[in-house]
Specification:
By secondary structure, this protein is of the alpha/beta class. The protein is built from ten helices and 13 strands. Strand 4, helix 4 and strand 5 form a beta-alpha-beta unit. Helix 3 packs across helix 4 and helix 7 packs parallel to helix 8. The two termini are 20 Å apart. Bound molecules: oxa(dethia)-CoA. Oxa(dethia)-CoA binds next to helix 2, helix 6 and helix 7.
Length: 336
């Protein structure tokens, strides 16, 4: 399509809480051990917020501040905010408006995206549309999560409690007239038939009373539920599928990918994705070992870290792909 602009990522920043929680720390809270967690997920440690001091909005704000600085821009240059999270500070309003306030942005639009682990892929694609049409020049895209206080830290909740972590990262998405660079294509998908396979249902708006008088509130549904095996099965199919779709759209091949950043769900899932696509180790970046699964924040945290390590250079073909609760999934191809 004949667009005048392409979207490049002109700056990135990340924020991880200082508090490191190792597998051994978790084994003191419930029946688990480093060997089980490492073998099944590859995770060695994750970060948890300091409760009452760090929130999804504050982590997202700090990551955004760093991204704006990295892009060598000022707060006033930001035209729009897209904030992806499944753990906003409040049921409403979303965290985007808090970034607007905390950074003293102009009264620009602020949109929250509710697409779980694929949140950043969706958010990036939304930003890309506004840039391509020429409506905005610089858009802040944030992914941030506080999972540690949502998990049930007991034997009942241990399958999820060992996986998820807290953190944030942000990207400034900017317009360029160089149509050989930037986001080449992206795709987004969903299959709502599996909505309850990975979900936090309470406090639900389906009852007459959400809190007081809600019989479900103190039951199992106050905690997130995950059918781990089914999520795993779909994740290892859908991510390679969406990567192939993106390559097909752009007439590129898996060999052309310089760096694939899969959503950091589970190192075994990332391994399967790599194998299915026939990629080698150097073509895939993972950092779940240090941060666990930070849902909407996982891809930008990994992309930011890869960039800091010098693994993403101008001209590289970078591919992002994610799968998560919804089910939702998708992929993005970027010529850096
Ligand atoms: O971001 C997208 C969201 N999520 C994902 O991508 C996660 C996808 N799923 C997974 O990563 C895996 O299914 C898990 C890592 C969650 C679980 O691995 P699994 O190989 O599917 O294990 P399982 O749930 O089938 O459980 C195997 C055993 C069970 O014991 P029995 O019944 O065999 O005696 C569990 O009770 O492991 C037990 N178990 C644990 N043991 C120690 C479950 N969680 C733990 C734990 N520590 N944390």
């Amino acid at each position: 399509m004949g667009f005048q602009y392409h979207s490049i990522i002109s700056g990135m920043g990340k924020y991880l809480p200082d508090r490191v929680v190792t597998n051994d720390d978790l084994s003191k809270m419930f029946d688990t051990n480093d060997e089980w967690i490492t073998e099944r997920t590859g995770i060695k440690e994750r970060r948890w917020v300091k409760y009452g001091e760090e929130y999804t909005s504050t982590m997202g704000t700090e990551a955004a501040r760093r991204a704006i600085e990295d892009a060598q821009l000022e707060a006033d240059d930001i035209d729009f905010v897209v904030f992806a999270t499944l753990t906003p500070d409040y049921p409403f309003p979303g965290c985007g408006v808090m970034v607007q306030k905390n950074l003293g942005l102009r009264n620009v639009g602020a949109l929250d995206v509710r697409n779980q682990c694929a949140g950043f892929i969706y958010a990036l694609s939304i930003a890309d549309q506004f840039i391509k049409t020429g409506m905005y020049k610089n858009i802040l895209v944030v992914g941030a999560e506080t999972q540690s206080n949502v998990m049930q830290k007991t034997n009942e909740g241990r399958d999820m409690a060992v996986i998820f972590g807290d953190g944030a990262a942000a990207a400034v998405v900017s317009a360029t007239e160089d149509l050989n660079r930037g986001i080449l294509t992206s795709n987004m998908h969903s299959e709502g038939a599996y909505a309850e396979e990975l979900a936090l249902q309470e406090p639900s708006n389906r009852h007459e009373f959400r809190i007081e008088g809600n019989p479900e509130l103190t039951g199992a549904k106050q905690w997130p539920y995950m059918n781990g095996r089914n999520v795993f099965k779909h994740a290892v199919t859908r991510m390679p599928e969406s990567v192939m779709e993106a390559l097909g759209e752009t007439n590129l091949k898996t060999d052309d990918i310089d760096l694939l950043i899969p959503h950091q769900a589970n190192l075994r899932i990332a391994e399967f994705v790599k194998q299915k696509l026939g990629l080698n180790d150097d073509q895939v970046f993972n950092n779940i070992q240090k941060y666990g699964n930070t849902t909407a924040a996982s891809i930008p945290i990994a992309l930011c870290e890869a960039k800091e390590k010098g693994l993403v250079k101008q001209g590289d073909l970078v591919c992002l792909t994610a799968f998560g609760s919804g089910f939702v999934w998708g992929a993005t191809l970027i010529r850096w």
